[in-house]
Amino acid sequence: MTAPKHFLDLNDVSADTLRSILDLGVRLKAAQKLGKADRPLVGKTLAMIFEKPSTRTRVSFEVGMKQLGGDVVIMDGQGTQLGRGESVADTARVLSRYVDAIMIRTDDPQKLLDLAKYATVPVINGLTDDSHPCQLMADVMTFEEHQGPIKGKKVTWCGDGNNMAVSFVHAAQRFGFSLSLAVPKELPVPQKVLDWAAGEGADVTLTHDADEACKDANLIVTDCWVSMGDKDAEQRCEYLEPFQVDARRMALAHENAIFMHCLPAHRDEEVTTDVIDGSQSVIWDEVENRLHAQKGVLAWCMS
Ligand code: CP
Ligand code: NVA
Predict the structure, then answer these.
(1) Whole-angstrom Cα distance, residue 146 to residue 132?
(2) Residues of the chain with CATH 3.40.50.1370
(3) pLDDT averaged over the chain?
(4) DSSP class of residue 281?
(5) Which residue, by CA, sits nearest to atom 7 of ligand 2?
(6) Is 135 a residue of the active site?
(7) CA of 101 to the centre of ligand 2 (A)
């Protein structure tokens, strides 16, 4: 039996494969817009396990599967036996007998790895506390729609060294862009992720000076100051306040620079209202591309 094609993290999939998944997503988007949608997943079912809230991931995966001809089963973590202690290994074995792929959103990255270890069908990371690779596929697609190839371009991350920041580091290496990380020293990107980037020769620089990081950027991106599961909200906001993306910082960037945010957003916290709702913001294209990029992921995993 051949090994399932898991989509666990961007640094777990080769650069060539990521590019071909993205190309597939672009083709599927074009076909859908022309009303000539491909339906390669007729008869296939995706199980989705949610142990954390979601709007975009949940809807875009369900709509994506249906557009590809397949179906979904949505499992609220607490409403399953997994939620009351059935092992991840047994859950993986059970689901593998019913469905053709499993997507999980969980706080615990080890659960994702265990699911992938014991499942005989592909497992997709729908966000953990450590990373959010599906969001990055949509972000790269969106960048390239607006600005052309991302290779060699400058991307600036302003904010928490969280799961999104980690996936941006992975993406910088895999897609060949320059990443400037402006993060508070109290909320760093994990050292092992930076070590991986350095070992892979990625163009990733770290600063605590957001102005410096924003200079000449082609894309400025941020995320909420308090992620799902974070407890120390007040303290985090204090650390992150100097990293807010505002019009002055956007003006430091390249004149055609764009702004992105994975959402949900908190206006006038991590980004000012004029920026997120302004002409440089491409957040609604970014939202839409969750659907198209993930259709590429789903079709690749189950092909
Ligand atoms: N960006 C994102 O993953 O959104 P949801 O939490 O709504 O799925
Ligand atoms: N960093 C955020 C991303 C939400 C899509 C969180 O984990 O809550």
Answers:
(1) 22
(2) 10-132+289-302, 134-286
(3) 97
(4) B
(5) 227
(6) yes
(7) 23
